[in-house]
Design brief:
Radius of gyration: 21 Å
Shape: globular
CATH topology of the largest domain: Phosphoribosyl-aminoimidazole Synthetase, Chain A, domain 2
Strand order of the largest sheet: 8-10-7-11-9-12-13
Number of domains: 2
Order of helices and strands: HEEEHEHEEEHHHEHEHHEHEEEH
Helix content: 25-40%
Number of strands: 13
Structural class: alpha+beta
CATH superfamily of the largest domain: PurM-like C-terminal domain
Largest sheet: 7 strands, mixed
Strand content: 15-25%
CATH architecture of the largest domain: Alpha-Beta Complex
Number of helices: 11
Bound molecules: magnesium ion
Distance between the termini: 26 Å
Length: about 350
């Protein structure tokens, strides 16, 4: 549908594995002093001195996590890195290195991998991380991507899921639901395209939510902002599966309850209008949609004055005693129990 018209196809067989890795990674430069040795030996060597290393891994599978009929490979490279960096920032740490491993079938030429690595390179530049290793191998069908992200933080900076206390405020960055609705728009246009391949989709009215789906940004800026505001969250998690399930993770790990207020959930105007177009409830989408990669965290009430004027942060509720349970307080002021509808269960409905 949005396929690259680049017709040049260089077969991977001519390069060999080490030739391929060297070809794809030769322009990556080392930016961190903690990277003592990057690509080029049996293993990378990292030295964080007085800091802790934070490590997170994700595996992305074609047909399950991404669809190449509307996901350009450069965006896929960028997004694959974002998915991982988001988990590092959710620890209140700074991402410093990544490894990138891919398995691909022989239907992909070298040019396709170059596009993918161009996206990885852009992410490395924007987020200041070093590519320090990885692997490329063949798959019988489709593409698999595994990225490991490494970050660092001093012990006193680290934030876990388990620190929320009664009366803490529940805060979210950015706005929610856009990535899921962007996916709905792209899926719809894909079906239109199947029926009439001459029909070029007009995605302009949906540019914000399509970008949220195809090119999300991990919230490094929020970690930096919190540092500047001198606010250390009591607990934190990134929103990969939808607000509802992430809140439940925080509450379960912290052994607390919460009240989330429906009218406080931040929604972009495009999310509201597109929800109406798809005859879906925008609150349900924010609660269950997923892939927004915003940060959800709790703060002590005494820190509220430091964040209240900030347009990037919204207080959406508060932490309650465990016995009170986890609830959504609706616009009609009724309390309903929060349920963990993740991305997958939501799709099956
Ligand atoms: Mg996470």
């Amino acid at each position: 549908m949005l396929e690259d018209k680049n017709q040049q196809r260089t077969s991977l067989e001519n390069l060999g594995e080490f030739g391929l890795i060297n070809h794809l990674t030769k322009h990556f430069e080392i930016q961190h002093t903690s990277t003592l040795k990057g690509i080029g030996d049996d293993a990378a060597v990292l030295n964080f001195k007085d800091k802790n290393a934070v490590v997170s891994t994700d595996l992305l599978v074609e047909g399950v996590h991404f669809d190449l009929s509307y996901m350009p490979l450069k965006h896929l490279g960028y997004k694959s890195v974002m998915v991982n960096l988001s988990d590092i920032y959710a620890m209140n740490a700074i991402a410093t290195q990544i490894t990138v491993s891919i398995a691909i079938s022989n239907r992909f030429p070298l040019e396709a991998l170059e596009e993918f690595y161009a996206g990885v390179a852009q992410a490395c530049n924007v987020y200041n991380v070093d590519l320090i290793g990885g692997d490329t191998t063949s798959s019988t069908k489709g593409m698999l991507i595994s990225i490991t992200a490494i970050g660092m933080a001093k012990t006193e900076k680290l934030v876990y899921r388990s620190g929320a206390k009664e009366n803490d405020l529940l805060v979210v960055s950015g706005d929610l639901g856009g990535a899921y609705l962007g996916l709905q728009v792209l899926e719809r246009e894909k079906e239109v395209f199947k029926v009439n391949p001459n029909n070029q989709p007009d995605l302009e009215p949906y540019s914000y939510i399509v970008e949220r789906q195809l090119k999300p940004e991990a919230r490094m800026d929020i970690v930096e902002l919190l540092e500047k505001l001198e606010v250390k969250p009591t607990s934190m998690i990134d929103i990969s599966d939808g607000l509802s399930s992430e809140i439940l993770h925080l509450c379960a790990n912290s052994e607390v309850g919460c009240n989330l207020f429906e009218d406080k959930i931040p929604l972009d105007p495009t999310v509201i209008s597109t929800s109406e177009e798809f005859k879906m409830d925008s609150t349900t989408i924010a609660l269950s949609g997923g892939e927004d990669y915003e940060l959800l965290f709790t703060i002590d009430q005494t820190d509220f004055p430091k964040i209240k004027a900030n347009p990037n942060l919204t207080v959406i509720g508060h932490i309650a005693a465990k016995e009170e349970g986890t609830h959504l307080v609706t616009r009609a002021n009724t309390k309903i129990a929060l349920t963990a509808q993740g991305w997958n269960s939501f799709n099956e409905e």
